[in-house]
Specification:
Layout (H helix, E strand, L loop, with lengths): L8 H18 L6 E4 H7 L1 H38 L5 H50 L5 E4 L15 H17 L1
Parallel strand pairs: 1-2
Helix pairs in contact: 2-5, 3-4, 4-5
Length: about 180
């Protein structure tokens, strides 16, 4: 049975980027441009809005955990003070509260992760829509996303459209938000 040759994802990504760059450089009158994707993501107003909303929800959820933790500590102190005189019923109550606390803490952690993933997807989806429109409005053939991890080894700063894209996506977002 012949072995399948599989390229690592990083190698495949580099080949695709090289092909895109070559196509952009070879087109007469057109140059490939790039943006710093982390910078665009962080400066996008929707990112800031949803991050603030996430922090508010997470803080409210943390208050519930803190309250349960405080109740557990109080009950533990009472049991400790009672020593051997602690009743089986009190120990059972402590164990029940402890289990509820652990389950609630785990559930809140999962809920926070799910909310963060939902917001991240919402941000990326909206950004992709705006970036598509930006590329079309600027009549770009190629717009590369640089992440500072070596995919874009060098480019003249004059090809950097990060600031312009940030202004564009935030303007689009504000226009949609007003309607």
């Amino acid at each position: 049975m012949p072995k399948k040759i599989m390229l690592p994802a990083a190698t495949l990504s580099l080949l695709v980027l090289a092909l895109i760059a070559w196509m952009g450089f070879s087109a007469p009158g057109h140059k490939p441009y790039y943006v710093s994707t982390p910078e665009v993501y962080q400066a996008f107003e929707l990112t800031q809005t949803l991050n603030a909303e996430y922090e508010k929800v997470a803080k409210t959820r943390q208050l519930k955990i803190d309250s349960l933790q405080s109740q557990l500590r109080q009950l533990a102190v009472q049991l400790d003070e009672a020593g051997d005189a602690a009743k089986a019923e009190d120990l059972k109550q402590f164990e029940g509260l402890r289990n509820y606390y652990l389950q609630t803490e785990q559930q809140i952690e999962q809920d926070n992760q799910a909310l963060a993933a939902k917001y991240d997807e919402q941000i990326r989806s909206q950004l992709n829509t705006y970036i598509q429109a930006f590329g079309e409005a600027r009549d770009l053939d190629v717009l590369l996303g640089a992440q500072g991890q070596g995919n874009l080894l060098y480019a003249r700063e004059s090809y950097d459209l990060t600031g312009e894209l940030i202004e564009y996506v935030n303007h689009q977002y504000q226009d949609e938000d007003e309607n």
